Amino acid sequence: MSELNNIVLKILENGKGILAADESTATMTKRLDSVNVPSTPENRLMFRETLFSSSSMKNYIGGVILYDETIRQISSKKNTIPELILNTGSLVGIKVDTGAKILAGSPYEKITEGLDGLRERLKEYYKLGAKFTKWRGVYNIDKNYPSKLSIHSNAHALARYSALVQECNMVPIVEPEVLMDGEHSAKECLEKTSEVIKRCFEELIIHKVDLKGIILKPNMILAGNKSKEKITNEEVAKLTLECLKSSVPSEVPGIAFLSGGQSEIESTENLNLISKHNTTSFIMSYSYGRALQQGALKFWSKNIEDIEGTQQIFNHRTKMNTLATQGKWSKDFEI
Predict the structure, then answer these.
(1) Distance CA 64, CA 73 (A)
(2) Are 150 and 108 in contact (CB under 8 A)?
(3) Has 16 been annotated as catalytic?
(4) Out of 16, 131, 217, 238, which one is annotated catalytic?
(5) Cis ω for the linkage preceding 218 (within 30 of 0)
(6) How far is the C-alpha of 117 from the C-alpha of 125, rounded, in Å?
(7) Beta bridge partners of 174
(8) pLDDT at 147
(9) Domains in the chain with CATH codes
(10) Which of 9, 148, 235, 250 is found 20 to 30 A from 55 (Cα to Cα)?
């Protein structure tokens, strides 16, 4: 078994998931503004450290994706943030793209940038303690989108990124996110997401990426958030599994879903049903940001000194999602 495959299995062992705490300063500022907490480096660190030092890190979180600011910060206990995370038995990840910019030739779509200088940045992040990385490509759905240009350009970037990451002995999370914004049906989402994922794997194979040493981070198959179509959670699970079976090579060890704008409960319920009906060899897991943090953030904002209360909310949410990776979650367990 390769070293990279071992890292994947360590992150996803025993139903553990990934905490996506890699919000950019701009995104984190929006989150803190929404709960009336000033977005200072100290406050951003304080909230994140509250989560990273919670008891659930040992039991439910196998990896944490950090932002460049956070991987360099020092905790209140005077150790580095990577040391704090590693001490819980969780592994350190880092977002390495520099954001989605307008795609030349298709102004309504985006291409993710950050390949320039990536090899050097990866070496630095590895020295800082990172064992895995993340790069997110985003795709709009409409009758004309995603275009061939967007599908090919983002797949190519994801593959080049992945090859560089593995060269540096780290595991790349490959995140092609077909956005849920729009009026599209679940069937359209299935078709477009399948096309996007297939193209990503074509490029990964061309770039000689070891598929046993990656984690795929896809969206679930959902109707658009402005669609008149109502789709059940059972249908979400069925269509999502259909998509993965037809699009993802069997060598891929693990799939960690993004929540993509779903509520905390909805993302847990859908993950639970996907896990329950999963007949593939893929480990099914989660790599959630807002869907793990939102309840804790709201609670924390009322009294940022109440570390224990905030951690209790976070511990509950992570436990629910780890139960969901095993198909053992029930609405009755929710507070």
Answers:
(1) 15
(2) no
(3) no
(4) 217
(5) no
(6) 13
(7) 135, 216
(8) 98
(9) 3-326 (3.20.20.70)
(10) 9
